[in-house]
Amino acid sequence: MSTIKIREIELKDNVMLAKAIREVLIEMGVPKVGTAYEDKSLDEMYQEYDYARRRYFVIEEDSVILGGAGIAPLENADLPNICELQKMYFLPQARGKGVGFLVMQQCLDYAKEQGYVKCYLETMPYMEAARKLYRKVGFKSLDAPMGDTGHYSCQEWMIKEL
Fold first, then answer.
1. Which residues share a beta bridge with 71?
2. Are 30 and 124 in contact (CB under 8 A)?
3. Burial 47-72 (b: 16+ CB within 10 A, else e)
4. Using an 8 Å Cβ cutoff, are 6 and 58 in contact?
5. Residues 6 or more apart from 16 whose CB is under 8 A from it?
6. Helix/strand/coil percentages in the chain, nearest 5
7. Alpha carbon 96 to chain centroid, angstroms
8. Residue 127 confidence (pLDDT)
9. Angle at Cα 140 formed by Cα 51 and Cα 33, nearest 5°?
């Protein structure tokens, strides 16, 4: 019987994680421009999160990366105490098992440990399952984006007090 593990990203995860995230983005019909799909960092996630106040957690089952989520400072914002929940995507075989909730809790716990007071995220209006999960843990909708993440195609913005 296989077990799903949540762990910090390792260098060896880069290729499999980028492939998994792109598969999910294509499945969800996310535009390839103005979203995480075109982020240069997608192919070097380990390096992207190998800095202070950043962390990325992967979901692994039988040595296969099924997705993950990360925390980093909010880009291009003069708000040092606000982080962003980033690149939270899971392949279908990881969904509906409570893994998304667990990974998000790990991210939010890490954010609190790092001294962040609020967590921001961007998503798509039609990603209803994700938005339902975000609301369940206390994220509230915003009328406009914060910072400048470069994800101008994302039309839903949310924030949570930590």
1. 55, 85
2. yes
3. ebbeeebbbbbbbbbeeebbbbbbbb
4. yes
5. 64, 65
6. 35, 30, 35
7. 17
8. 80
9. 60
The answer to whether 46 touches 114, Cβ cutoff 8 Å, is no
Identify the DSSP state of 140: E
Read off the amino acid at residue 100: G
Both structure tokens of 32: 């390839």
- What is the predicted pLDDT for the residue at 32? 72
Backbone angles phi, psi at 119, to 5 degrees: -125, 130
Q: What is the pLDDT of residue 151?
A: 67
Full-model pTM = 0.92
Residue that the structure tokens 């708000």 belong to: 79
Q: Which two tokens stand for residue 139?
A: 């994220």
Per-residue pLDDT of the chain (162 residues; tens, 9 = 90+): 568 999 999 999 999 999 999 999 889 887 676 667 677 889 999 999 999 999 999 999 999 999 999 999 998 777 889 999 999 999 999 998 999 999 999 999 999 999 999 999 998 877 888 899 999 999 999 999 887 776 656 788 999 999
Shortest CA distance to 7 belongs to which of 48, 55, 45, 53? 55
**Using the 8-state DSSP alphabet, how is residue 147 labeled?**
S
- The answer to whether 32 touches 68, Cβ cutoff 8 Å, is no
**What are the backbone angles phi and psi of residue 104, rounded to the nearest 5°?**
-65, -40
